[in-house]
Amino acid sequence: MNLLNSTGLKFFRVALLTGAATIAFSSSALCFSLEDLNPFGKSKYEMKLDPNVPADHLYNEGLIKIEHHDYEAAAKQFAELQRQFPFSEWARKGLVMEVYANYLGESYVDAANSADRFNSLYPTAPDSAYVNYLAGQAMYGDMPDVQRDQDRVVKALKYYQAVVDKYPKSEYAADSRYKIQICHDQLAGHELDVGRYYLKRKNYTAAINRFREVLFKYQNTRETEEALERLTEAYLVLGVTAEAETAAAILGSNYPNSQWYKDAFDRLQADGLAPHEHEDSWISKTFRKVGLS
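Now predict its structure.
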């Protein structure tokens, strides 16, 4: 998925300004050969750099490669900049642009790895918010469906949360908050999917544990309604009527017009029961803790 849009173009314009040098498009100002412009050359990504080339020229060459949509070569160029000038301001700028080049080239894992390296080396740098947001976008851009492993969603959430926690007033904070909610929905959906799997196989204890995770970690997501109904269903089968009644009562209190509540109510009624909140229930305590009960 290519997430580059007008916002992404804005990022690139910002990145252009991070260099002290002005990009010169003449062959005399830049130190690259015609081989760099040959997309079919065997040595397309072979780095043959003059160690005496100034840092700003190496940086500008990387920008040119981005302009030519040669993102892999650009990422290698910025990595070489860091290698040749490891303790300079150019190294930091090069690492930022390495993250960006990998992101544009949809090398999402590489973008995240570069961001992790940046966070380790420059945890308080002024462009940290941008780097973490970009890494979040990289992982978000490769989000799997709910049936698959959610490792990349967890990583995206980590980066977005870093932006919100450390830079709440940055220009990336609002979208990070929005993406955090989507990540929570995704992770809650995964827990529900696994819980339904166990429920169908009559492994009720394992199913309940998954539905509990939804309520503990992702209570403000849309998946909460179904999780409460599924808890009603599982606890009824196990004969734990107090928890079943409580799950239905909490569901009805917070989502009275929900189809899931109607289903839970009908299940209880079929067993001669009715929704009732038992305050010693873990479900009741969980919802009181966040003020939803």
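The longest helix spans residues 173-200.
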